[in-house]
Amino acid sequence: MAGTDEIAVAAADDALYVLTAVLLTPAQFPSVLGDDYPEACAALDLPPLADGYGLVLGQDGDGARWTVVIDDVSLVAVAIASWDCGMEYELSPDERAVVTALPGWPLAVAVAAPGVPAPHDPPAETAGRAALCPPDTGSWGPAQRRLGADEIALQWAAWREQIDDDSFPPPRGQAAAAESAPPGAPGASTGGHAGVRRVLAEARGYVESPPPLGRVRSSFAPGEARTLRADGPGWSMVARTDDIAFVLLDDEPGEILPVGRGPELPGLLEALDKMAVRPL
Q1: Which of 151, 192, 202, 231 is the S-S candidate for 175 at Cβ 3.0 to 4.6 Å?
Q2: Where are the domains of the chain?
């Protein structure tokens, strides 16, 4: 999280007290905004530029929420990396890097700038457009499903240790439907589950016919493995290339369905990793 650095906000004629920043690129974007990079950009009415954007979230002197979109992706990446390491970093992009200033925040921010009024949307006459607001995650749906997948990717070890490999049915000829699990808890599953079969089929389709940019992303994992994230209409999948996968479905609120490696998953994950976008 940032401090309260100040940058100019062209649309607000005021300084911006920076609270945080995020990347909006094909390989790294707030997945709560969409299943892929173009969809996430559309949520902010931005064209899906190949190099992406940096989003700087803050408040003006009146406390109003603003999201400043800049095209200096490297600057924002360095700032985020510094903050993650507990280091101070003054995020002050050149005015020429500012693409636009949008009222509101597309993501929930839990902190506020000191010494200014509480966060609020700027007046419509000042903003010139409807203010951005975070997607509704109060009930199960696409946004909540994607956030769940984010959490599994971030806390892979904690989720993985809940799975006993012996609980997976035999991979061939004896695959059974997954048993119902308590909300938020993974239950044993293989491709025998109808929803999982659909997800695996659609993921295989991505290999043959590339989906919109960002539907399949690959990121660092311990050892020589990669963490894979794939999303599609109504589903999200998180996997390690050397391990199992987890599937979340819009149709099954709170359920986390593990998919054993079996004979087919390793090859699918390898193929997805080869066509996935990766952080620079």
Answers
A1: 192
A2: 6-127, 142-275
Q: What percent of the chain has pLDDT over 90?
A: 74
Q: What is the DSSP string of 35-68?
A: SSHHHHHHTTT----TT-EEEEEEE-TT-BEEEE
pLDDT confidence band for 186 (50 / 70 / 90)? low
Kindly tell me if the per-residue pLDDT of 176 is higher than 60.
no
Secondary structure (3-state) at 33: helix
Buried residues in 127-149 as b, exposed as e (16+ CB within 10 A): beeebbeebebeebebbbbbbbb
Distances in Å between the alpha carbon of 37 and those of 22, 33, 61, 91, 225?
Answer: 14, 9, 32, 24, 24
Return d(Cα 4, Cα 207) in angstroms, integer.
44
Structure token digits, residue 43: 């949520």
2-6, 58-62, 172-176, 242-246: range with lowest mean pLDDT: 172-176
Looking at residue 192, what is its pLDDT? 72
* pTM confidence score: 0.86
What 3-state class would DSSP assign to 208?
A: helix
Question: How far is Cα 74 from Cα 280, in angstroms, rounded to an integer?
Answer: 10
Residue 129 near residue 104, CB atoms below 8 Å? no
Average pLDDT in the 87-101 region?
A: 89
For residue 137, the one-letter residue type is T
Report the Cα 18 to chain-centroid distance in Å: 21
Nearest to 114 by CA among 63, 56, 79: 63
Alpha carbon distance 221, 230 (integer Å) = 16
